[in-house]
Amino acid sequence: MSSRSVLLALVFLLAAAPPPTAPAAELRVSDGEVVVEDGVAYVEVDVSWRLSWRNDTNWDAAWLTVKAPVGREGVPLKLAPTGHRVVDTRTPDQSGPTFSVSDDSVGTFVYRDAQADGRGPNDWTLRLRLVLPEGATPADLPEPLLVHGVEMVYVPEGPFSVGDPQRPENAPANAFYEQTADTTAFPPYRITDSGAIRMCDGPGSLCYPRLDNPYDSLRVGDFQGPIPVSYPNGYDAFYLMKYEVTQGQYAEFLNVLKGNQTAERTPPRARKYHWNRGAISLAGDEYVAARPDRACNYLSWADAAAYADWAGLRPMTELEYEKAARGPAAPVPNEFTWGSATIAHGDTIFAADTTIARSEGGDTFVRGNANYTPAGVNWNGGYNATFTGGDEGVGPLRVDIFETRAHRTGGASMPDASLREASGAGYYGAHGLSGSLFDRVVTVGDPTGRRFRGTHGDGDLSYPASASNEDWPPMNGDGLGLRGGTRSDGPPGLRSATREWGDYGAHYRAPGMGVRAARTAP
């Protein structure tokens, strides 16, 4: 069926409108209203989020994609390279945003157009110019359109280091290092350009320790190379999701799939889903997230890849992971992704008035800077760092909960390094890179991973609701690794350089499996 026929079919069949867009860590994106001016089609949408910034290092952004809902399937609509504008700015003393449309026209980044001190809210009404399918007219567009939003952080081009400055016996498990002529030295490896990288091939190459147990070695890498120039090694600029995909975002994704597609991608079918703070359920014929800002767990690799493709994003690599965590700074021994070796645990969810919370929302907080399992907690089929207050139980938290606490307790007056540590943020502002849920990454330790070229999702899934990018790791997990640890890990698993599972194809659904996606900067 042609794109025009698909759109016309929707009009005549009176397909249901999409559900209201779910919040994602305070990002609010309204349904899109079709506006036609001089025969040109636009989608008008309200976009707002809090604690936004633009400084001399980087900025945060909203990544917006547009779909025409057809029954329960979303037909992606392209955006024009120019012609977008601001209709209204509701934040005092703030000018309109910059629009940075992707090269493939799948979506646009929207971010502050000028530097400012500190952080604050963005609140705009935007008008995005559409490129209609061949043969379609503005009159063919249904209303409302679905505009999906994801908060991202910009990671600028530049050199950075991977690994840890300690010897392997003291460093985080299987951390990267540079091979040197001195076989007793294991310095961090510096990535200084986007070229190919030699692997475990003598002085000047990137490597990681060989383990005595052959089985353990299988999960860190094959010690082969090189890493080709086509593999995104982190030097070039890219955007990374500020938070892990939330349950609200994933419910919105489920609600625009066809029935048989939804059956393939629904994590609540997993055993013990609701025992581990999964909060997505079916209400009538719509999926609803009772805790929309909570990190979305129980996602298989097929689920994660499908969401990334549908949202116009891509997987991140393990080298990009370390850059997002550490930035250009020299590695610190045993550091976490907020740049220090200090970590704080909290097991109680408090209300804004510091009493134990009876529910969970945007005003609740936890005293700590990461979701993990502290020393001394017994293992019983999984670590059990159970929360008191809120919804209690074991599992993921609201993705911005530590950020919220840090800013509430004097963030504006904190030094930047202290604020970063208090909120558990990476160098460029991504949260939850240590703890919470594993970050699935494309490994350098496997030939399938090294074939990754960083292609982006096109917003359209193949049958049955699957990502179709040939260079992405396949659905059996070959080419994947895990970084950052989960809420079930103790501190050693959360360190920036830890590669305990650097080459481990975790394709299955589990309580600690979510998704965080990236996109090469336009």
Brief synopsis:
By secondary structure, this protein is of the alpha+beta class.
Description:
The protein has 522 residues and is of the alpha+beta class. It has a domain at 3-155. The chain has nine helices and 22 strands. The protein has helices spanning 3-13, 214-217, 247-254, 259-265, 301-310, 318-326, 401-408, 416-423, 447-450; strands spanning 28-29, 33-37, 40-52, 60-70, 73-79, 85-89, 97-101, 107-112, 120-131, 146-155, 160-162, 177-178, 189-191, 206-207, 238-241, 280-283, 286-289, 349-350, 365-366, 439-442, 480-483, 518-520. The strands form six sheets. Strands 1, 2, 3, 4, 5, 6, 7, 8, 9, 10, 15 and 22 form a twelve-stranded antiparallel beta sheet that branches. The longest helix has 11 residues, at 3-13. The chain is globular, with a radius of gyration of 22 Å. The two termini are 32 Å apart. Residues 1-24 and 379-383 have low confidence and may be disordered.
Task: Record keyword descriptors for this entry.
522 residues, alpha+beta, twelve-stranded antiparallel β-sheet, 9 helices, 22 strands, disordered N terminus, Sulfatase_Mod_Factor_Kinase, signal, formylglycine-generating oxidase activity, SUMF_dom
Helix content: 10-25%
The number of distinct helices, counting runs of at least 4 residues, comes to 9
Distance between the termini: 32 Å
Instruction: Give a short account of the largest sheet.
Output: 12 strands, antiparallel
Uncertain segments of ≥5 residues (pLDDT<50)? Answer: 1-24, 379-383
Radius of gyration: 22 Å
Q: How much strand content do the residues show?
A: 15-25%
Query: In total, how many beta strands?
Result: 22
Rounded average pLDDT: 89
**Shape call:** globular
